[in-house]
Structure formats: structure tokens, C-alpha cells
Amino acid sequence: MKGLTAFKEKATGVFGGLKPNMEKFEISQSYHGGHGGYEEMEGGDREGRGPGGGHAYDDDDDRPDSPASFEEIERPPLRKIDKYCKAECPCMPARYTIATMACVGFMIAFGMRCNMSAAKLKGEHNGTVFMNWTVAVESHVDSSFFWGYLVTQIPGGFIASKFPANKIFGLSIVSSATLHLFVPFAMTLMHGHVVICVRVLQGLFEGVTYPACHGIWRFWAPPMERSRLATLAFSGSYAGVVVGLPLSGLLADAVGYQAPFYAYGVFGIIWYMFWIWLCFENPRKHPAISIPELKYIEKSLGESAHPSMPSLSTTPWREMMRSMPVYAIIVANFCRSWNFYLLVLFQSSFLKHKFGFKVEEAGFVGSLPHLIMTTIVPFGGMLADHLRKNGILSTTNVRKLFNCGGFGMEGLFFLFVAHSSTATGAMFALTCGVAFSGFAISGYNVNHLDIAPRYASILMGLSNGIGTLAGIIVPYALDGLIQANPTGCWTTVFTLAACVHLIGCTFYGIFASGELQPWAEPPAEEQQVWAPPAGAITNTDPSQAGMLGNYMKETSFGAPEYNEQSQMQQSSAISYGATGHVANNPFAMAGATAPITEEDAPPSYGDVSNTYGYTQDAGSGGQMPSYDPQGYQQQQ
Hints:
Layout: H1 2-14, H2 22-29, H3 37-42, H4 94-112, H5 115-126, H6 135-151, H7 153-162, H8 165-180, H9 183-188, H10 193-206, H11 209-220, H12 226-254, H13 259-278, H14 291-301, H15 317-321, H16 324-355, H17 359-389, H18 395-418, H19 423-437, H20 447-451, H21 456-484, H22 490-511, E1 551-554, E2 560-563, H23 608-612, H24 629-635
Helix pairs in contact: 4-8, 4-12, 4-13, 5-12, 5-16, 6-10, 6-21, 7-8, 7-11, 7-21, 8-10, 8-11, 8-13, 11-21, 12-17, 16-17, 16-21, 16-22, 17-18, 17-19, 18-19, 18-22
């Protein structure tokens, strides 16, 4: 090992003039084929034999160090927990790990919103003290969460721009989950004032979740994966209803109305522990991300030399407020929120009062539409990216097709629900309508990243804030109707919901856009596009590209596969939203005329056999120069 240490110090002076830093070296090594720094701690495979049949090394003393180990890429130090347990999910790339964890976070957040309806239905049978609430108090309790939720929407966009968005997202959910533990006690107090205050505080914390999630994708989502990553994360809000409705009813019926609140409070705290372990602000701060994935994300996004976050004074409010594509997103968000909160708050009541379902039955049957939607949302995101990536439809047409198709079909099926006289017919129409609305998430809900990636979190806060008004209005509009006529009011309720969706469909179809807006372009001083560190990525002649290393090939869900063949030539130009205006877009590579795909990802130097297996000189057969550590030692 002494010989290896001496060679490392010499090689450090040869490649890049880096100062000897064993910590950086070990982290860098950890990305080479999944070994290196972690390999040394875990006692992993040390044979060094790659798929190409390269040279095998019996121990670390015989293994030469790759020049790529000394790339000038700043890597974070390993945390204490990383030395025992790697911060990764072995079955998926880092960006999909974050999307999955965000999905689970949304599941918990939206599951908590289902607890109150189950508690109220259970309280009707037990004569619980909180069932003495008046209609006005009950409406206040139902809408109080959204009072706080509305307040922090736009500020949440700036908070997510100023501070690490991943930390904001995690803290918002764990804080709300902690407060959720106090709701059962607050419900036992008279007049409902205390529970209203607790739910307002919950809304204040959760109001930053959507803006923070968009802030995360600003650094993690390659342009051609925006739809699938965002919809994977956002599908948690619908999966939360799928799980929350039946689980809340089951726990309330089996244990008591308090049980759903305690269960979800604990779920949120446990989830937060995994979130802070696995999720990071950006790829450069992730201690376990692979080098190929890191370079692929950065090459796809590009990066300003000194990117600055938008502030209250630098945000183009006047232009934003005069932009019809912005209003299209806002109107669509409001219309979708109206129907979503209608189902979250009153679907169980609809099934119980009109068709005589029990509490637990209403929860399980009511979760079916949301279960179908949960599967539709990520599928719709993948389909939308496929249409854009292959130039079948422009981004604008994809957004309009998915949003208007989803809204129109949901509105149509809600009319069937309104006039259905049987439980089977009502549930069939409700399931179809909610399922089709899942495609709309690939329309308006990711459109912010198309028209203004720089201000995506602020726009999400603005649009989601207006959408939150629906969550405030719906209880006041419907509680009185339900109290007066709990059986016959539903025709009016669902006809109104259908009209709201058809209005949103029409407005979005006319005014929506998928192109970068002129007011969203970065300042002139930030239009310098990021270039990779010296020596990290080199321009090569196409004839020399064949043996340059492993390239990532996109699978159906973004998992990296490694392929010896590379594609250096790009296809014809395709406009895919924000990256279409390359000259003025900080998220596009200079000179790019087509989307950057994983086939165009920079080479991986992680494969030992590829790194050391070349034997010809540069320019002979397109292979890289051979690397002889002994030769370097002799020269030194």
C-alpha cells in the first residue's frame, strides 16, 4: 500500500495540478464502476476485470489509478452514515430515487388530508363531541388547512429559490406530520377553534411543497425527462388518496377516529429520516451519484457560470401578469383543484349518503378511481416525453393534447356521475373520469418548466396558490347543500364540477404554450453557458468516439444501461420547451440543435477494463492512448 500511496501523490501532481487530497480521491474512486472508496470500506470486488476482458488485478497495490480519478470535479465528503450505508437505491439512478422519495412524501401529505373526512363519518355513529359543530364551524375546519396553504404558496417559491429546495420540501412535510399528531386532542375541545388553528399551521408548512418540488427539478431533471420525473413525484398526491381513504376508514373503524392522525404523523417522521439520507440539493452534492449520471444531468441542463436565484425585485412581475400562458396554467390548476378537493373532502360522504356505503366501504371503493389515476400519471409523463423526444409533436401541442384531453373526458364522465342512479354506474363513470384526468398532469402541472424554468418554483407557487382557493371555496359551497339535502344534492354538485372542468379545458386549449417566454430569459451576464471542467469531457472526432468509454442508454424508466457504442451525432432539431432558445437559455448547451439524450451522455471512466485496456497510441484505430503507471513513475 505504501507504493500505491506514493504513486497517488506523484500522479496528483501530473494530472491537473491538484493538491494531494485522499478524501477527494476516495470519493472520486467510488464512482468508477461502483467501487473505489466504498469498495475499500466494504471489502468489495477487487479483481478489476471488466466486461471487455481487460487486465485483472489481484490487489490494490497492482491496480493503476485512472487519470479520470483526478478530474477537477468537486465532490462532497462522505457523511458518517455513508461509510456504513451508501446513500442510494441500488435499483435506480439518483434522480429517480429523489422522484420516488418525493412521491412517497406527497403520499403522506395528501393522505393526511383524508383523515378528517373519515373521522367525521366515524363521529356521526359515536356521538363524539366534535360532531356538535355547527355547519359554519365544520366548513371552517374543512377549509382552514387551505387558509394557511394559500398564504405560503408564492413565498414558498422564493424560499425554494433562496434555500436548498430539498431541505424545504422535507421540513415542510415533517413539520405538518408532527402537528398532525395534535389534531385528535384539538378535536376534543369545544367549538373547534383549536383544531382550526392547528390545521392552519399545517397548511402554512405544506404550502411550500409544490414550489420546493419544482425547485428540486431545476437541478435534477434533464429537459427530456421533465414530464416523467415530475409526474412520478406528483403521482404521490393521488396515490396518497388511494391509500389514505381506505386506510383512514379502516383505522377509524377498527381503532377509533384518532388512529389515522397518529398513524400518518408517525409515517411523516419516519419518511423524513430517509429523505435527508437519500436526497440532495443538486447532483454535485450527492456523495453516491455515478459519474455518468452526474455528467449526463449537467450536460443536459447546462449551467450558468455564476447562476443567481430570482428575487422579489428581479422577478418580472408585470410581464408575468400579462402572459396568457401563465393564466392558462393558473386556470387549469384552479379547475383541477376544484374536482380534486371535491373528491378528497366529499367522496366518502357521497357514497355513504346516496348509496348507503359504510365508512370503511366508502374508503375502499372510493380509492379505486385514484388508484387508476396513480398508474395513469407516470405513464402519461413517459408518453409525453416520448412524443416530444421523437419530434412527433411540439411541446405546446403535447401540453394541450394531454391537458385538454384529460379535462374534457373527466368533465364528460362527471355528467354521467351526476345523473347516475346506481352505485355501479356512478363508480364506473367516476373511475373513468378521474383516470383520464391523470393525463392532464403532463399538461399544466409541468408547463412551468417549459415556459419559464428560471421562475418555475415561483410560478408553481402562484398557480397552486390560486388553485388552493378552490380548496377554500368548495367546503363553503357544498357543506350547506349536503346538510340540507344529503341524498339529492349530488346531481348539482357533479354537474357544477363538470362545467368547471370544461371551462378549464377551453381556456387552456386557447392560451397555453410550451415555449420559453421572452420575459423568462436570463440576464445578459448569466447567458454564458456552463462548460465542463478541463479534462473532464474532451471533444473528439467521430472516428475516435467508438472506444471512448461506456455511454448511458436510456431505458423505459431512465435506469442507466451501459453500452460500448456511442452516438455523437445528434438528430434533427426538435423544440422541446425551455431549451429551444439555446442562445438565451441557461439550461441548454451552447450550439445544441437537438435535445441531449442519454445516448449523447459523456463517457464513463468508471469501467476499469475500458480505462486501462487500450494498447494503441492515440489516433490508431480511434483508441485512446495506453496508460502505463510504471512509465509515469520512471519519468518522475
